[in-house]
């Protein structure tokens, strides 16, 4: 679940460049099938490699996988595949981070233009910081990264739930792009209801989280099973729907009374 949900920001970053006539169903299918197929291929290779390695894979994943190809052209191809894979995903991550920072910076303002030099500088800072963290934590990077992803899921799931409910039930799969840049427009500068529900969604997950950073008090009662992401999806989605429905009804009533 965490693997799939973390693709949400990529979809948001890149689907904006598609033509308006692009079918939402096709976008959903392309993204969903691509991430599922890619994940299944990688995980299947990992399972097979782990079975063949007889315990030698953990901690030496890249060396072992490349070693399966010997020392010739196949090994070189495997090394290049891994290197280009890391380059590709890190490019997407750096761009996504830049877009997130730009969104935060421009929130509540009219159109804001960021110069190319500033964008390049911010990208360089992001890449430098990420590389430094990876180098410092290289000896325990995979375990720390796994824990980080699971912990990050706590913040992704309510965000995903609120966005999906808002997009499909209230905006009816149509976003007014001009209004997004207008703090006095129909979306306003801040969606107070959405932010409130998001904070509630994060909070209610904490007793059920099980990660390397933190384990909630209910985890032992559940036999070590982490169900926080289920709660983080269901509760914010339902709560946001109810509150937004009430807001819409109140707004409609006020409009009629005028």
TrEMBL record:
InterPro entries: Pur-cyt_permease, Pur-cyt_permease_Fcy2/21/22. Pfam families: Transp_cyt_pur (PF02133). Keywords: Membrane, Transmembrane, Transmembrane helix, Transport. One of its GO terms (molecular function) is transmembrane transporter activity. GO terms for cellular component: plasma membrane. It is found in: Membrane. Its main location: membrane. The chain crosses the membrane at residues 27-52, 64-85, 91-108, 120-142, 148-169, 189-209, 221-243. It comes from the Bacteria. It is a multi-pass membrane protein. Belongs to the purine-cytosine permease (2.A.39) family. This is Cytosine permease. The lineage of its organism: Bacteria, Pseudomonadati, Pseudomonadota, Gammaproteobacteria, Enterobacterales.
């Amino acid at each position: 679940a965490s693997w799939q949900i973390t693709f949400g920001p990529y979809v948001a970053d890149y689907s904006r460049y598609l033509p308006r006539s692009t079918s939402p169903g096709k976008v959903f299918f392309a993204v969903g099938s691509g991430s599922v197929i890619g994940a299944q291929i990688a995980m299947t290779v990992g399972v097979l490699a782990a079975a063949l390695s007889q315990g030698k894979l953990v901690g030496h994943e890249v060396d072992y996988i490349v070693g399966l190809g010997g020392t010739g052209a196949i090994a070189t191809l495997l090394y290049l595949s891994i290197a280009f894979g890391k380059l590709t995903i890190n490019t997407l991550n750096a761009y996504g981070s830049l877009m997130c920072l730009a969104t935060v910076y421009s929130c509540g303002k009219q159109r804001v233009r960021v110069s190319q030099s500033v964008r390049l500088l911010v990208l360089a800072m992001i890449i430098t910081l990420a590389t430094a963290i990876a180098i410092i934590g290289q000896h325990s990077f995979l375990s720390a990264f796994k824990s980080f992803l699971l912990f990050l899921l706590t913040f992704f799931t309510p965000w995903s739930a609120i966005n999906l409910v808002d997009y499909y039930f209230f905006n009816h799969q149509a976003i007014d792009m001009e209004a997004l840049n207008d703090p006095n427009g129909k979306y306003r500068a801040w969606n107070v209801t959405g932010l409130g529900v998001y904070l509630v969604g994060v909070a209610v997950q904490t007793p059920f989280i099980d990660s390397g950073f933190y384990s909630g008090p209910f985890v032992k009662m559940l036999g070590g099973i982490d169900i926080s992401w289920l709660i983080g999806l269901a509760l914010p989605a339902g709560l946001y729907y109810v509150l937004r429905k009430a807001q819409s009804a109140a707004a409609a009533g006020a409009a009629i009374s005028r």
